[in-house]
Amino acid sequence: MSAALAELFHKGKGDEGANIDIFVHKGEQQQMARDSKLVAIYSLKGGVGKTTLSVNLAAESALRRGKKTLLWDLDPQSAASFILGHEPEKKARARSVFERDVSPDKLVQKTAVPGLDLLPADISLRGLDGLLASLGKKKRLAKLVESISDQYDRIFLDCPPGLTETSEQMMRAADIIIVPVIPSPLSQRALDDVVAHLKEYHKGHAPLLPVFSMVDRRRNLHVTAMSANPDWPRIPMASAVEQMAVHRSPVGVFAHRSPAGEAFHMLSGAIERKLSKVKD
Ligand SMILES: Nc1ncnc2c1ncn2[C@@H]1O[C@H](COP(=O)(O)OP(=O)(O)OP(=O)(O)O)[C@@H](O)[C@H]1O
Ligand SMILES: [Mg+2]
Questions:
Q1: Which of 9, 58, 88, 139 would you label with 23, given CA atoms 20 to 30 Å apart?
Q2: How confident is the model at residue 124 (pLDDT cuts 50, 70, 90)?
Q3: Which residue in 40, 5, 41 sits closest to 199, CA to CA?
């Protein structure tokens, strides 16, 4: 573990490995009736399990924790939207909430998962970074989230990879940032880069919770990487996860007792415990 990461994590020992700098930056939201929280799933790296975590954690929140939940898909690949049964519309409109002040709730759809709504992505989000940068409004995403937060207990953001204007805005808005890490040196480096960035540019940022993703205990590399951080939550490599795109459902709907289903449930509990300590 890098020195920066060790310092961040040391503060949260004994709490599922979650580290922790708690930041008070959402004063306006204190007044809300709901204790609405924004959970961002983010990594610098592509293909590490962000969408998988987003869909399953949002489903856990709605199905098994009774939270009114929204999954906001910010990735133009729209994989989360696909898994949750969304069919692309003729006109790609996802960008309009950022560009033309269309209220996010105009685009929100119900899903087949009770209590879970979806704000779908589409190809129009492809140039979102450029658009956000050109708008010059650093808290555009935070304000949009705030505009619908009285309708939800939990809002999950499935973020695209990369260190971009979209991720900058996410870092300003999030109450907690979940970072999937495949147990390997490269993924670990990507996490270290995120930590370094947060420390330098987002003083007092939201707590960060790394999660080992796609864990395969038969691989020495995975076992070694995990031994360095034995208290981080783990999601096993599992066929149930691959089946999500076939069933077009979260694991919790068709295999909640599988090892992956149990792991998502436990992680969802760890996030709730962490959020209960995050001040508004
Ligand atoms: N625990 C797991 N077990 C098996 N397959 C998994 C697991 N987690 C993710 N995958 C598979 O790995 C691939 C990448 O996962 P996912 O789409 O969640 O990553 P991502 O970080 O969102 O990718 P991107 O950066 O492209 O958005 C997918 O095909 C997914 O089904
Ligand atoms: Mg994804």
A1: 58
A2: very high
A3: 5
Closest ligand 1 atom number to CA of residue 43: 21
| 169 CA to centre of own chain | 13
Pocket test for ligand 1, best of 52, 57, 84, 217 (most atoms within 8 A of CB): 52
Tell me if 46 CB under 6 Å of ligand 1.
yes
For the Cβ of 50 lying below 6 angstroms from any atom of ligand 1, the answer is yes
Q: How far is the CA of 52 from the centre of ligand 1 (A)?
A: 6
Is the pLDDT at 7 greater than 90? The verdict is no
CATH of domain 3-277: 3.40.50.300
Write out pLDDT tens, residues 46-56.
999 999 999 99
pLDDT tens column, 96-121: 999 888 999 999 999 999 999 999 99
What are the tens digits of pLDDT across the range 170-181?
999 999 999 999
CA 29 to ligand 1 center in whole angstroms: 33
Cut 0.85: pTM above it: yes
Query: Which ligand has its closest atom nearest to the C-alpha of 260?
Result: 1
User: DSSP character for 16?
Assistant: T
Domain boundaries, the chain: 3-277
